[in-house]
Amino acid sequence: MARSALLNIMVQAATKAGRSLIKDFGEVENLQVSRKGPADFVSNADKRAEQIVYEELLKGRPTYSFLMEEGGEVQGTDGQHRWIVDPLDGTTNFLHSIPMFAVAIALERNQEIVASVIYNPVMDELFTAEKGGGAWLNDRKRLRVAARRHLADSVVATGIKVTGTDDDALTLRQLGHISPAVAGIRRTGSASTDLAWLSAGRFDAYWEARLSPWDVAPGQLMVREAGGKMTDYAGTTGSVWNGQVVAGNEIVQGQLLKALHAVK
Known about the structure:
By secondary structure, this protein is α+β, with helices and mostly antiparallel strands. The chain has 2 domains: 5-142, Fructose-1,6-Bisphosphatase, Chain A, domain 1; 151-261, D-Maltodextrin-Binding Protein, domain 2. Helix content is 38%, strand content 24%. It contains 7 helices and 13 strands. The strands form 2 sheets. The protein has an 8-stranded mixed beta sheet, sandwiched between helices. It starts with a helix and ends with a helix.
């Protein structure tokens, strides 16, 4: 796969931030026994990675706007383009020395996601996608969603939040209903990883709510370019703004959506 100039900028930003995270990740385990604990260190690692992404993207496209998990919104002069950035998706994993986290970047053009990068620096797996150009792993392998046709045969990923709201109870009811209907449920702790792995056919389907735009945007395009379907809980085209995702190949996604509708 030949990368476009735009995708090269995104990849450079993600991999440079990834190198910073790898360096910091090596220090987290040493901090587990410290009195203060590693939380502040990880927060600073997150901010360092975001600053690297910001500087690299700004250098490559100085007129574009930004929406970042840590830094919020930065208005550019372009008016049409915006970077959506999660510099460390999987912060809790990182905090606990679990090597399942990613740098995730999406480019929005006129309110449509047109390019994305999801990079796991520990596994050195680089997932990329451009509108109309397909989705790829490490520039070599074309990604396609799994071809399974039955929810009962599927491994399904989700996220489990504990926020003390009524949504928690709904999530538990969904788990209780869907778990016996599938081959297995997985929870990685990184929404962008879930969507990248779905695009690669490792997961068959995925659902989650209360997600932020930077959780959804990089994976949204990737799933679609890999031949998958993503909607919100109402079954309409998934928006990065409403925080709801139901994804899979067209058949299994429809079966999962139907199963979710059965849970009240």
